[in-house]
Amino acid sequence: MAAFPLPPGSTLGVLGGGQLGRMLALAAARLGFDVAVLERDADSPAGRVAAHTIVGPYDDPKALEALAAVASVVTYEFENVPAKSVLTLQALGVEAAPGPEALSVAQDRVAEKQFLNATGAPTVAFASADSADEAMSQAAAMGAPLLIKTRRDGYDGKGQRWIEHAADAAAAFEALGGVPVILEAQANFVRELSIIAARGRDGATAIYPLSENHHEGGILRRTLAPAEVSTRTAEEAERIAVRVLEGLNYVGVIGIELFELKDGRLLVNEIAPRVHNTGHWTQDGCEVDQFEQHVRAVAGWPLGPTAPHARVEMLNLLGDEANQWAKLAHEPETRLHLYGKREAKPGRKMGHVNKVHPL
Ligand SMILES: Nc1ncnc2c1ncn2[C@@H]1O[C@H](COP(=O)(O)OP(=O)(O)O)[C@@H](O)[C@H]1O
Ligand SMILES: [Mg+2]
Predict the structure, then answer these.
(1) Is there a single domain that holds both residue 218 and residue 353?
(2) Same domain, 197 and 139
């Protein structure tokens, strides 16, 4: 096992080669680390800025062995890392952060809500169903409208169906592929907020100001930060963040998505055990951004300051919106972040901009 803090010159392993891996690699390089990316595709956004790319599936023992041979610690840019891969890495003497508890909770929407409620973080009412019949009886007991989501593998609003009548639950269950699902009561939120937080190897925590998030079709479009919230809301969100981090014995950055209700109460929607799209504003709005913070945490360094020095509007560039780069580059308040993806498909996250304004 590596000794912490990891000195500059050490190699950090990252599972996943997308934009989050790319921005982690850039932040790691700034602190003098090398990055080794494990990714199925030889030509990936993260691989193109990393010292090493190991090509293979995330659960390939040979690829994990090659990663363990160069990396002192391994982290990931997505939550659906097979638990077995983490165990394989641990058996090879490489620590993975965040740890297996955080992954198993975040990979299953039912386990996630059970953990949140047990730790004192409220969520919408929910039930699980493994069959069409069970979906029907749970829906009848809860009452519509309901949002039915696959328990595993959903992202960007994929794997979800609203039903307006409890009688439609069986059809929704089948339409989602006949896999285990969660049924969620509708959150009548006035706003979606999120909080990005970090916990170091020494148990210290660092928390960013809340951001306000706007989604379209399940995909994040726009983040405004720091969000205008009451002191009570800010304190409640911080209390939730600390409970979640401590409950998972967490190391690294986490994203916690929240629903703000009319009466000011907060419900947790979901947690992401990684750097998060709603934290991209910190790159141009905070002293130490979420990517450097994650590298610091997993490398056993002290966490950095999270204070904001600007007000930021973050806009995702989806599909061919990234073709606007030349125009955007003219705007003095706009910081452009492009992911180097070769092909712009509709809805694909190609980059983002941070529009920076004085606090
Ligand atoms: N129970 C709910 N009630 C109302 N809206 C919801 C609920 N769950 C999710 N949503 C909406 O759908 C979006 C995506 O759902 P989420 O559970 O965060 O899935 P994903 O993993 O795809 O991000 C949320 O940001 C929110 O706008
Ligand atoms: Mg979400």
Answers:
(1) yes
(2) no
Using the mean position of ligand 2's atoms as its centre, give its distance from the Cα of residue 92 in Å.
33
Measure the CA dihedral 275/277/278/284, to 10°: 80
Q: Is the pLDDT of residue 83 over 90?
A: no
Residue 106 lies in a domain: no
| 177 and 218 together in one domain | no
Say yes or no: CB of residue 93 within 6 Å of ligand 1.
no
The count of residues in the chain is 359
Task: For residues 137 and 78, state if they share a domain.
Answer: no
Q: What is the extent of the structural domain holding 141?
A: 125-185
Q: Is the CB of 157 under 6 A from ligand 1?
A: yes
200 and 300 fall within a common domain: yes
Are residues 246 and 172 both part of a single domain? no
- pLDDT at position 1 over 80: no
Tell me if 108 CB under 6 Å of ligand 1: no
pLDDT band at 28; cut points 50, 70, 90: very high
Any domain includes 90? yes
Mutate to test the pocket of ligand 1, among 269, 277, 316, 349 (most ligand atoms within 8 A of CB): 269
Token code pair at residue 269? 């929607």
What's the CA gap between 225 and 281, in Å, rounded?
A: 7
How does residue 218 score in pLDDT terms, banded at 50, 70 and 90?
Answer: confident
Atom of ligand 1 nearest to the CA of 272: 21
pLDDT at 311 over 90: yes
Task: Please give the structure tokens belonging to residue 234.
Answer: 């800010």
Q: Using alpha carbons only, what angle is made at residue 351 by residues 302 and 209, rounded to the nearest 5 degrees?
A: 40
d(CA 245, CA 268): 14
CATH number of residue 175's parent domain:
3.30.1490.20
Q: Is 265 in the pocket of ligand 1 (CB under 6 A)?
A: no
pLDDT band of residue 222 (cuts 50, 70, 90) is very high
Q: Are residue 181 and residue 197 in the same domain, yes or no?
A: no
Q: Is residue 120 part of a domain?
A: no
Question: Quick check: pTM over 0.90?
Answer: yes
